[in-house]
Input
Amino acid sequence: MEHYFTSNQNLRSEIRTISYENKGQVFHFFSDLGVFSKDRIDYGSRLLVDTILENVSSCSSILDVGCGYGFLGIILASRFSSHVTMVDVNKRALHLCERNIKQNSVLGKCFLSNAYENVTGTYDLIVTNPPIRAGKETVLKILLNAKNHFKKDASLWFVIRKDQGAKSILKVLENVYDCKIVKKEKGFYIMCAKIH
Output
């Protein structure tokens, strides 16, 4: 089976549109086969966005790592009126993401990058719903290396399910970051990490 965190160019295409409302504003996202959560916005991503918006008052630059078709980055860029950079290894997801940036009129760009491989900038806020199925090593690489792209006082926000190793990942991160669980809901942990 091909996973959403790979880039299979031979997969057939079935474009569909997903609508999502946030504080009275409706966003529309193009989605397709071979991308994460292709038929609906997944609960963890929605909870992550809502928790960030409840706890962060402003930010001028956002990096969305493993962006998929762009849900996290696009909503946050719109809400904060800020610029978003989005990266993924899945070319189909990036093609959709590019369309969704235009569709939702946000200031942003997306490009191919395996985690931070092609990322050169620094950001106020880094966000990810990490690809758990890609393995713990990949997830930790995304989370631990975020600090190399922090602006002063930046934060990393992410979501992990309790049953997918949230607590063991938290233990590893605490060696590097000041890390806290901001919200727990339906087995999802929303975490925020800052430099000590």
